[in-house]
Every structure is written in structure tokens, then in C-alpha cells.
Amino acid sequence: MFKIPVNSLRHTIFVRLVFMYLIVILPIILLGVYLYNWSYKNASDEISRSTLAQLSTYLEDLNREIEWLEIQQYDLLQESELNRLAVTWELMDSVDKKKSIEYMLHRLTSIKSNSAYVKDIYVHIRTIGKTLSVGSGVMPFDQQRYDALRMMLDENDSRLKKLDDTLELSSSRFGGKKGAEPLFIVQIELDSEKLRASLKKLNVYEESGSILVAEGAGFTLYSDTKAFSRMNEYWENAKASHERSMLLDIEGERYHFDRADSTKLGLSVVSYLPEETVKRPLSKFSYWAWGFALTTGIAIIVYAFSTYRFVHRPLLLLIQGFRRMESGALDLRIDHGKKDEFGYLYNRFNNMLDKLQALIDQDFKQKMMMQRAELKQLQSQINPHFLYNSFFILNSLAQTGDTERIELFTNMLGEYFRFITRNGQDNVPLAEEIKHARTYTEIQKLRFSRRIKVQFDELPPEMEGIKVPRLIVQPIIENAYEHSLEKMTEEGFLHVTFEQCKNEARIIIEDNGGTMDEEKLGLLNARLANTDQTEEMTGMINIHRRIMLTYGEGSGLQLARTKQNGLRVTICMKFKEEMGHV
Fold first, then answer.
1. Membrane-spanning regions, if any (predicted)?
2. Short-list 450, 457, 436, CA closest to 383
């Protein structure tokens, strides 16, 4: 007796080694990943703590500077010389006017020189129609800027206001009359470039950046001239989470965000830093980790390849052999030169194929030959039916003496029998079969045009090439005429339609005969179901049997009643893609 070569111990050791290797290596890899993430988190937290402290200090310094400017602004509002200019300008002589203006300009220059963030200071004196400025001296009254400042003072309660893309501190002085316009407005314009320069000092890394936001004033200032285009995305996330430190993916890159807020000023300072910058000190550890992971991966691949080559691939060959056998391919043997377990399995598989092939030659092929012979016999039985009925119609027309219709009928009959005799094939394209059925209905119109109407839908182009047994549609139509429509006293109606889905085509023939009840329908369905009956085979059963032999189980005729108690016959053809019918 043939014995299978046994190398199970060797294979078992191999499997255990691979398994033990993974058990030892995976915890080390996981530990390395944990240490890397722990180091990264600590570095990220430390950077965030340092950045938050720096941002808070920056806002405190900026708040002190703004408070000092607000004090100076308040002093200017109370300045007697400025109030004298605004109220008694018409009473002053030119010397006093010049002296007072020079004093105010000197005062404004002194305030500007003591602040690093002031770009210019304006005093808009409405009553004298002039505007005083550190940079421009005495100018005509700037009505447009005055109106803008007046509107902001009425509508905005925030300390800082935005005007022409800059932050402003503004305040007004009113006279004694209620509801009157302000005597003058003091405007301190902050220098955006100096604010940007102060923001740049917050950037510890070259890749980092800072953003100053006055949300109430609608003002945003970036530490560099290139704006961070997705700042709105961060701001929405920040409002939703109320977190001062966040990690977000923006424009395909991951950023660390830290934010400090000043409720007094309504300002926020945001610092952002690419995640790669945080990970940079860990790059050497990362390289070693990747090297170790790569080496481990190569070792696993070598082991996996060996397993695939010596175990998995031979199994796949065997599985593919069984699949080919299931699909009917019994002549494809598996060649294997090694004398191992798979060699034994392949040898047994090949022997099984030989035995199956011998059994099929003895049984299956004989059965197929019998089915082909039966199909030929059924095909030959259907041909005489129409011939008998045609001579009956011709006889009826001859009795009426209608020579014109006899001539038309004989021409159609000649076309019909030309189709029957010129094609010796068992199967024809559906387009030809439908054309033949239409010819039959045209012949019947010669007899029943006044009391039987026919609606013959167009055959869809995608169904024209389907190969069908000859004479499967016309006999069904003939049956409708013979057993229902001819006997009707009222107007008869015959309708032929077509349907197709992915793997099925249907031809539907229905009439309004009015004589079909449930009992008759049940008898017809029973006769169709009993395909092994030995009694005389009618045309409808003949068609049903031929379609089943051609297309297989599930195909054939399906019978049902119409709303008018007529008969609905559905010719159902199910095909597989490899049959080439679809």
C-alpha cells in the first residue's frame, strides 16, 4: 500500500518558529512605538506650555501698552488747549492759533515717540474744519474718516477698532448741547508692521508662525506676509472645543496650535507649528525604529514567502484544479515533480479526473445525444401546424371569391414558406422569428381586420441577435386566434411585447379572449409542468419543451390570466453569459 511521506515534524517546527518569532518581535515593536509616541507627546506638551506662557506674557505687555495709550488719549480729551481750539477758534487771533496748534502737534509727537506701536495720532476737530496729525501736521478736516470713526464709536463698544486694515483707539469729546456732534475725535492708529515684528519674536522655530486676532473688530494680523489660508478652519474648531492647545490637519499637513486670550482687549494670539518640527529631535530614534521595523518586515516576508512557496501555492494549485473540474474541464492535470504530500494528493487528483472522464464518456454524452435527438424531433413536429391552418385560410378566402385578398395572402404565404425552407438551422436570430410572426399576423388581418386588432411592439435592438428555436412565437399567436379570438362576438385584441433584464429575455403575448378561468389555467399549467407525459404533445407544450432543452431549467412558457379573462403567455429565456446570447 502507498504510504504518504510524512514531514509533519519539520513543518510543525517551521510554523512554531514563525509564530514564536512574531511573539518575541511584536512586543518589542509595540514598546518602541509606545516610547516614540510618549516622547513625542512630552515634547509637544512642553512646547505648548512654553508657547502659552510666552503668548500670555506678550498679551500682558500689549495690554499695558494699550492702557497707557488710552490714558494719553483721555488726557488729550481733557487738554485745555485742545478744548480752547475747538470752542474759541473764531475768537483767537492768528498768533494764538498758531501757538496752540504747535503745542498740540508737539504733544501728539511726544505720545507717539513714547510708544513702539503707534503709527500716527489724529485729532479731527470738526468745529474748526481741521485735522491734526503727527505725520502730516495740519490738514483739512478729514470728513470721511471722521464719519467712519463716529459710526464705530456709536456701534462698537470694544476698546480696539478696525479702520482701513489697521487697529485704532478712538474717543470723542462732546460739547454741552445734548445730541450735538462731537467737538473733536482723537484717533490713535496702531502700526501693523511693528505689531507684525513683535509677533515674529514669538516664533521660536523658522517654520512656526503667530497670528494676532481681534475678533470683535474683525481684524487678523499674521507674523509674515503670507496669510495662513485655512485660519477660519482652526478658529471654528477652537470655538467648538474651547481648548487652548489643538492638533489639526490643514492643507494636508498637521499643525500644533496654541492660543492665549485677553478679555480686556478682546484680542487673541495664536501660535502654530508644523508637527514635523516637533518630531525633528526624535528623528534619530525614528530612523532606528524604522530600520528595526524594516529588518523585521524583511524577515517576516522571507518566512511568509517560504510558507507560500512550499505550502500555500501547492494548495492553490489543488483548489484551482477542483474549480476547473467543477466548471467541466476534466483534461487539465496537475504536474508536480516532488515526492511529498502534495505529490501524493496531485496523483490522486489526476486519477480521479481520469475516472470522471471515463464515467462522463459512458453516461453524460449518451444523455446529451438523446436530448439532441429529442430536440430535433420536437422541431420537426411544429412545422406542419401552420401549413394545415394556411390551407384552411386559403380555402375560406376562395369560398368568398375575394381574388385580391387571395393574391395578397398567397404572396405572404410564399414569403412565409421561403423562411421555412431556406434555413436548415435549428436556431435562428430572434429578429427573424419575430418577422415571421408579424407575417402571420398580417395574414390573419386579411380575415379578421374588422373585429380583431393586433398591437405588435418593436423588438428592442439588443434582443435582435438572441438565438431561439424556430417557430416559438407564431404558434402561440395562432393558438390565441384559434381558441379565443375567432370565437369572440365582440372586438378582439392581441398584444405582443418584449422585456429584457441582465440574464433573461421575455416575449409576452396576451389576448382578451374572455374564456380563461382558474380551472382551465390550472389544467394548462399542469400539462406544462408534466414534461414526461406520453400523450399527444400539443403545440404549446412542444414550444415549452424546446425552450427548456435549449436554455435550461427556469426557461419555458409561463401562463397567466389577463384582466379581461384572456390568456397571457410569457416566453421566458434565461441564459448564461458564456452562451453568447446576451
1. 12-36, 287-305
2. 436
Distance (Å, whole) CA 476 – CA 539? 8
Among the residue ranges 69-73, 152-156, 159-163, 370-374, the one predicted with the least confidence is 370-374
- pLDDT above 50 (res 9): no
SS3 for 381? helix
Contact status, residue 280 vs residue 204, Cβ threshold 8 Å: no
Q: Cα dist. 564→84, 448, 484, 492 in Å?
A: 108, 20, 12, 11
**Quick check: 123 and 104 in contact, CB under 8 A?**
yes
Question: Domain 362-579 belongs to what topology?
Answer: Heat Shock Protein 90 (3.30.565)
Q: String of b and e for 57-87 (b: at least 16 CB within 10 Å)?
A: ebbeebeebbeebeebbeebbebeebeebbe
Write the CB contacts of 496 (distance below 8 Å, at least 6 apart in sequence).
437, 454, 455, 456, 457, 473, 477, 507, 508, 509
Using DSSP's 3-state secondary structure scheme, residue 582 falls into: coil
User: How far apart, in whole angstroms, are the C-alpha atoms of residue 191 and residue 419?
Assistant: 98
Helix (H, G, I), strand (E, B) or coil at 297: helix
- Of 176, 187, 172, whose CA–CA distance to 118 is shortest? 187
pLDDT in tens, 243-298: 778 777 777 777 778 888 888 888 888 888 777 776 666 566 666 667 777 877 78
Residue 186: exposed, middle, or buried by beta-carbon count in 10 A (0-12, 13-18, 19+)? Answer: buried
169 forms beta bridges with 188
> From CA 285, how far away is CA 38, in angstroms rounded?
12
By C-alpha distance, which of 575, 551, 552, 571 is closest to 560?
571
Amino acid, res. 58 = Y
Beta strand pairing call for 492-501 and 452-456: parallel
Helix, strand or coil, per DSSP, at residue 578: helix
Secondary structure (3-state) at 253:
strand
217: which 3 cell numbers? 473688530
**Is the Cβ–Cβ distance between 442 and 482 less than 8 Å?**
no
pLDDT of res. 4: 38
3-state secondary structure of 119: strand
Helices (H) and strands (E) in the chain, counts: 16, 18
Identity of the amino acid at 470: R
| Cα distances (angstroms) measured from residue 269 to each of 25, 60, 208, 412, 498 | 46, 11, 13, 95, 73
| Predicted local distance difference test score (pLDDT) of residue 199 | 84
- Contact between residue 110 and residue 141 where contact means Cβ atoms under 8 Å apart: no
pLDDT, tens digit, 9 for 90 and up, residues 414-437: 777 776 665 556 688 999 889 888
Structural domain spans, the chain: 362-579
pLDDT in tens, 246-260: 777 777 777 778 888
With contact defined as beta carbons under 8 Å apart, do 247 and 255 qualify?
A: yes
The angle subtended at Cα 266 by Cα 264 and Cα 268, nearest 5°, is: 115
**Residues ≥6 apart with Cβ < 8 Å to 120:** 112, 133, 134, 135, 136, 189
